Structure formats: structure tokens, C-alpha cells
């Protein structure tokens, strides 16, 4: 009596899905990480636009939704700024009025707080420059983890940095009050709301590829022999040996960024580096 067994497509073909393959009885399903959704082919993943799908709570806080790669952020409408201590928007005049007394105890004239706010605001921001470090061991910044490009503290800490400056000032942890104060616009943006160029701040941002800066983030254009991760923020080795059609006519061995072909005993590798030819009259196709 013949019986049928389920075939685990995920185990047979690891590249069926871009992110995660789940075997089902008689088939399989592909899943994407949070912030992404399946494409029409039900195999590849694409960014989920939480703003257009209504998967956000920005409007309840008087903000508008801005879609980012793999996530979203709430931004204040024109003429308003986010309060540094909470998640609400306030008029610029009210925020700027709090600047009185912040400059070494000096009290600014009321008319300047309101009418000269654009010239007053930069004084409240930290524009000092120093190196950014992505590794800190025992409160010591590791020079090997720095791109050695001078940046401000917010450009460093709001972009994945762990320490900043000559004194190795530790960056506040994401989600803490200190982080929200330093990075009021969320990751990828400095305190003043300007986009951070991750390609310059973070060392080896796209190893084995080229870094392309985007608003609030970045993406990698990978070299031949490498492919981007699901987030598009790193390049990993591409296993050519599991691709279809296979690059070798017989034995394929994957290497970092490439592959090599070899032949069984009695055959020699041809000049094309892919096909094998028998040493006698037989020729391997």
C-alpha cells in the first residue's frame, strides 16, 4: 500500500523565501519581519507603509505619520515642534520661551525669545564635534570602531553610536528620557531635525558594498557576489551554488563573495572555469 508524506520545501530549498519559510502540509508559507509585508509573489518582502495602512497612533497625539524603511515616525505639523520631554507637539513660541535662563543664567529679552527665535535656537544645541564610536569597553571608546569623521554628539548617538568625543561620553540608551531629549525626532535625525548621513558617521556601514544615504536611514548597494539583507542595510555573501541554474556543471564550492568549480576524477576543468572534460574520450556535459 502506497502512502504519501509531506515534503518540507523549506528544508529542500532554503532560498524559497526572502526572510523565513514555514512548512505547511502540502505546501509552505513565507513570513516577513515586523515592519515588512509580502510582495505579490508571496516570497519576497517589501516595506510596510504603516501610514497609509493606518497602523499608527500619530493623529491621536496631534502629529502626522511619516513612513520609514521597516518602521514609521510621528512628526509635528508645520509651525510646531515636539516637546523634548514627551510625545506631544507645541507651538514654537512656547518652546522657545523656555530658553530664558538656559544660557549660563543670562535672561534673554522677551521680544527676542519670540521674534528672534531662529537666531536664539542654535545656541541651545550642542554643536561640538568629535569622533563617534560604535564599541565601548569598560567605559573606554574603541578607536577601531570609529570612522574618525568629526560629528556632533546627536549625529553619533541618534545613529547607533555607543560613545562620543575625546572623553568618551556614553550615548543614552534608546527609549530612555535622555535619548528622547537628545534625539527628539527619532533615530536617523539629529537634535535639530537634520538627516544624519550614516555613510559618513558609521564605519564600514556597507561592508562589501556601497552605502547610499536616505532620509532618516540608508541602504546598501552590494558588490558582485554579495546580496543585501532583508532590511537592505548590510551585504552578506551570496551562495551561488544553490542558485538555479547552477554555475558549475559538476562540483560547486561557495567562497566568500564568489565560488569555485571542480571536477570528479577522470575529468579536468576547462578554461571557462565551469565545465569539465574527460581525460579520455568521454566528455562531461
UniProtKB/TrEMBL annotation:
Keyword match Signal: yes
Keywords per UniProt: Disulfide bond, EGF-like domain, Glycoprotein, Repeat, Secreted, Signal
SMART domains membership: EGF (SM00181), EGF_CA (SM00179)
PANTHER family: FIBRILLIN-3, VON WILLEBRAND FACTOR C AND EGF DOMAIN-CONTAINING PROTEIN
Source lineage: Eukaryota, Metazoa, Chordata, Craniata, Vertebrata
Protein name: Uncharacterized protein
Domain named TB: residues: 130-183
Source species, domain of life: Eukaryota
Domain EGF-like stretches: 6-46, 47-90, 195-232, 237-277
GO biological process terms, semicolon-separated: epithelial cell differentiation
Coiled-coil region list: none
A GO CC term attached to the entry: extracellular region
InterPro entries listed in its UniProt record: EGF, EGF-like_Ca-bd_dom, EGF-type_Asp/Asn_hydroxyl_site, EGF_Ca-bd_CS, NOTCH1_EGF-like, TB_dom, TB_dom_sf, vWF_C/EGF_Fibrillin
Main location per the UniProt record: secreted
Gene3D superfamilies the record matches: Laminin (2.10.25.10), TGF-beta binding (TB) domain (3.90.290.10)
Organism in which the protein naturally occurs: Oncorhynchus mykiss
